[in-house]
Write a structure and sequence with these properties.
Length: 623
């Protein structure tokens, strides 16, 4: 009897509810299109609703026009399931009084092929699910803040279903709200007008969307905006100054990025939870163009982009942020710009193919685990300015064989295990007079490494670097580079190397026929020249073209030769330099004081005469 009593009670309760479900509307009225529409009164307004049992009037066919007012009320919304499964509807026209379109309002309306969202809509739920022939959306809502997958749905397996192929954003739209086209897997065309300033998380899982034009008006791209989309290339304009985590993450077809943001505010963390980078796990991304004005690349930006082969960092970037290129296992070469001062923790962690990277002279700090497990790295040359190599910075760089430490001051500090498990290192060139400070065990195979240090520093290194058994003083610790500004005019050579007893190297510039040595890049004109080697040095020789012949005149002066003499007339007050044919200067910056100056030479041959403000002349001297 107890079970029967419960049954009767439940039956009575359901019966009481039936009239409320059956009579959901407050009144009905014929619309301008001739259709009987049903309305519920909400405050002083009305919304379109269903007739009975939570379903629209499935007998309705053709083009529906919803009025702006009915029964003396402003029509402000389309209620839930108002046109549910009205498969005969071919179009719907909504007035600008509409502010809300509720869940399932047009669900299952398979006759709809396009829809226009009015400008005053502020709430747009999953209203068009099951509209399998709806392909085009005209979106004009200027202040819509409440949206959730209005044009897509997910099945029980988590697959997204949508028939939308084209989205036209109205010319007055400033914000494209979150989830607006999320899950629209058939979407191929999106038109974003130059009025838009913010792109929300609006295009995630749009797997057939291959291209998007982001106008210069856009300043904000929110988190997950294009995550898992089908984009193959994207250009982020310089106007963007704020971008959210995972904005383009997991775009598996993305191959090319044009990145022009000067700098931006980037959030890859929400509370205590860590989210992903801008292009994280875009494994087919192979080409990245960073604009010359770029100053900031956020953390995790290219994390896991395994197809990226090389990257050039512009000169405006000062910091390589943490994990920016982490696990880019295909990254082979990196060129750091001339302003990079810091490489933060894990910046290149796991880049196992990285074989070449330059460390610019501005670099002062390498963070912990910055190059951990970069097993393809063969050598590392650190600049004079470097102050810190942090904990495990190069841990597991098993391909590393050669390290060069700059000669900077203050002292370089190398963190614990910075070069641990780098067991193929055989040579360290340390150019600093004061041994770098080693924090604990830095090298795991110190006994196998030969360390070359500057002359006079052996005792200090033996004391501070006592883990190493083979430390050698050498005068050749510093690099001397000599170059010709134009090798068709002449060449340069090192004719004597420095030693620990004599720190001077000797260099010589030799002019080719028809040319003469002019000067070194620092203005020095001595040739051959002695160079003191206490730091890395590069010197470039400049040459000039020789013109003229024996016995010549120019304006008010004359040059000629007579036996073993060179005569110059009419050049009082003019400095003169005379060189032999191989570049030795035999007369150096001598100011002419007589109307006719006479210069004696030792032997016959061709001599070069240079006077300020006048051509360079070649004079033949015979005895």
């Amino acid at each position: 009897m107890k079970h029967k009593s419960i049954f009767y009670a439940m039956f009575f309760f359901v019966v009481l509810l039936l009239p409320q479900v059956a009579m959901a509307y407050s009144f009905f009225e014929t619309s301008p299109s001739g259709h009987k529409l049903y309305y519920s009164i909400v405050g002083n307004n009305a919304i379109v609703t269903y007739k009975e049992y939570g379903e629209g009037d499935t007998s309705m066919v053709g083009d529906i026009v919803i009025p702006s007012s009915a029964g003396g009320y402003n029509v402000i919304g389309i209620g839930s399931r108002a046109f549910y499964h009205c498969t005969g509807i071919s179009s719907v026209t909504m007035p600008n009084t509409i502010t809300r379109i509720d869940a399932d309002a047009f669900a299952g309306c398979t006759g709809l092929t396009s829809v226009t969202i009015p400008e005053n809509v502020t709430s747009l739920s999953n209203a068009f699910s099951g509209c399998t022939n709806l392909t085009t959306v005209y979106y004009n809502a200027t202040n819509c803040t409440d949206t959730y997958m209005p044009f897509a749905e997910a099945d029980f397996s988590g697959n997204y279903i949508s028939s939308i192929t084209t989205a036209i954003i109205g010319n007055n739209i400033q914000v494209i709200p979150d989830d607006l086209f999320g899950g629209c897997v058939q979407l191929t065309t999106v038109a974003i007008p130059p009025s838009v300033t913010t792109i929300g998380a609006a295009f995630w899982r749009c797997s057939n969307l291959t291209n998007i034009n982001i106008p210069l008006s856009v300043t904000t791209i929110k988190e997950q905006a294009f995550q898992y989309s089908g984009l193959t290339s994207v250009s982020i304009p310089s106007s963007v100054n704020r971008i959210g985590y995972n904005a383009f993450a997991h775009c598996h077809n993305l191959t090319t990025v044009f990145y022009s943001m000067d700098s931006c505010i980037y959030n890859y963390q929400y509370g205590s939870s860590l989210y992903g980078g801008m292009f994280e796990d875009c494994e087919n991304l192979s080409t990245v163009h960073l604009g010359s004005s770029v100053r900031y690349i956020p953390p995790y930006t290219f994390y896991g982009c395994t197809g990226l082969y090389s990257i050039d960092i512009p000169d405006g970037v000062r910091v390589i942020q943490n994990n920016t290129f982490g696990n880019c296992t295909g990254l082979h070469s990196v060129h750091l710009g001339n302003a990079v001062a810091r490489i933060e923790s894990k910046a290149f962690d796991g880049c196992s193919s990285l074989a070449a990277i330059n460390f610019p002279r501005t670099l002062t700090h390498i963070g912990s685990e910055a190059f951990q497990n970069c097993s393809g790295l063969i050598y590392a040359t650190f600049p004079d300015a470097l102050k810190v190599i942090n904990y495990k910075a190069f841990y597991g760089c098993s391909g590393l064989t050669d390290i060069t430490i700059g000669s900077g001051d203050p002292l370089l500090s190398i963190g614990q295990q910075a070069f641990f498990n780098c067991d193929n290192i055989t040579v360290i060139h340390s150019k600093t007079i004061n041994p770098p400070v080693l924090s604990g065990t830095v090298f795991s195979a110190a006994s196998n490494i030969t360390v070359y240090v500057p002359c006079g520093t052996l005792a200090a290194y033996n004391s501070e670097w006592n883990h190493f058994s083979n430390i050698i003083e050498t005068a050749n610790i510093f690099m001397l580079t000599v170059e010709s500004d134009d090798e068709t005019m002449g060449y340069v050579e090192i004719i004597r190397q420095p030693t620990c007893q004599n720190f001077f190297a000797e260099i010589k510039a030799t002019a080719n026929d028809g040319y003469c040595f002019s000067h070194w890049q620092d203005g020095n004109t001595t040739n051959p020249r002695m160079v003191e080697m206490w730091h890395d040095t590069t010197l470039v020789a400049y040459f000039d073209v020789v013109s003229g012949i024996d016995n010549l005149s120019y304006e008010d002066f004359r040059i000629w030769s007579d036996n073993s003499q060179i005569h110059i007339r009419g050049a009082v007050g003019v400095p003169v330099n005379i060189y032999d044919v191989i570049g030795h200067r035999i007369v150096a910056n001598t100011t002419i004081t007589d109307d006719e100056a006479v210069f004696h030479v030792d032997r016959s041959g061709v001599y070069i005469v240079k006077m300020d403000g006048r051509p360079i002349w070649k004079v033949v001297v015979t005895k």
